[in-house]
Amino acid sequence: DVKVTQSSRYLVKRTGEKVFLECVQDMDHENMFWYRQDPGLGLRLIYFSYDVKMKEKGDIPEGYSVSREKKERFSLILESASTNQTSMYLCASSPVRRMNTEAFFGQGTRLTVV
Amino acid sequence: KQEVTQIPAALSVPEGENLVLNCSFTDSAIYNLQWFRQDPGKGLTSLLLIQSSQREQTSGRLNASLDKSSGRSTLYIAASQPGDSATYLCAVLNTGGFKTIFGAGTRLFVKA
Q1: In this predicted structure, what is the pLDDT of residue B65?
Q2: β-pair type (A42-49, A64-70)
Q3: Can you say whether the dihedral through the CA atoms of B58, B64, B67, B68 is positive or negative?
Q4: What mean pLDDT is reported for chain B?
Q5: Which residue in chain B is spatially nearest to A30 when comparing CA positions?
Q6: Euclidean distance between the first and final Cα of chain A, in Å?
Q7: What is the DSSP secondary-structure string of B71-106?
Q8: Of A48, A50, A90, which has the smallest distance from its Cβ to B44's Cβ?
Q9: Among A42, A48, A102, whose Cβ lies nearest the Cβ of B98?
Q10: Could you tell me if B56 and B65 are in contact, meaning their C-beta atoms sit under 8 angstroms apart?
Q11: Across the interface, do B51 and A42 touch by the CB < 8 Å criterion?
């Protein structure tokens, strides 16, 4: 089974802190994604990566950055956390197989910024 | 720009009923469509993946259909159970892109 593991289920951080959310997948997938999910807004793509050291902005990249130094690991960084970044963060991975590209998700990290 | 809509937003049914969840999308140029389940406070679990060349996929009590020309997909759940209570999301992967576009989900309650 594909496993996508996020380092924390719950995090509480203070405004202005630098926050790292880590995601690891064990299926050698090329693509990795970070989403945030908010009530009434659904899932919104923050950043994605289709290869090591490659990254592309999603729909809402402001206030975030990412790092992909190894194929299996994709990190989301909040440079200076703000209360409007309180949300559920979901990591996903998928292989590059065209029509059969199935996305797999981690268990989510609920981040609260106080 | 691809938009994915799910109707209804919420649904409550008695145990044992068969039900259909609907998903529509505006751009038929898709690689595939995927149905997910999400339990409260958890991540997404993939249920079914339908490639653009396929019409339907089945897994246990679940059957998903795809009609690309009309931009529609349905998820049929047979003999619903309280354990089916969750939010169901559909998502499409556009041709030529990496981004998966999600619907807002249908929140399902199955009453015992």
Answers
A1: 97
A2: unpaired
A3: negative
A4: 93
A5: B98
A6: 37
A7: TEEEEEE-S--GGG-EEEEEEEEETT--PEEEP--E
A8: A90
A9: A48
A10: yes
A11: no
Interface test with A, best of B100, B101, B107 (most A CBs within 10 A): B100
Identify the band that residue B100 occupies on the pLDDT scale cut at 50, 70 and 90: confident
Backbone φ and ψ for A22, nearest 5 degrees, come out as -110, 145
Q: Is B55 helix (H, G, I), strand (E, B) or coil?
A: coil
| Helix, coil or strand: residue A104 | strand
Total residue length of chain B: 112
Which pLDDT belongs to residue B94? Answer: 84
Bridge partners, A70 (sequence order): A73
Instruction: Answer whether A104 touches B (CB < 8 Å).
Output: yes
Nearest-CB residue to B42 (from A33, A98, A107)? A107
Q: Is the pLDDT of residue A41 over 90?
A: no
Tell me, what's the pLDDT at A98? 56
Q: Which residues pair with B87 in a beta bridge?
A: B38, B107
The neighbouring-strand residues paired with B77 are: B19, B62
pLDDT (0 to 100) of residue A92: 94
Residue A82 pLDDT greater than 80, yes or no: yes
Token pair of B14 as six digits: 């008695």
pLDDT band at A95 (very low <50, low <70, confident <90, very high): confident
Give the pair of three-digit tokens for residue A100: 């059969």
Q: Under an 8 A CB cutoff, do A100 and B98 touch?
A: no
- Rounded average pLDDT over A62-78: 97
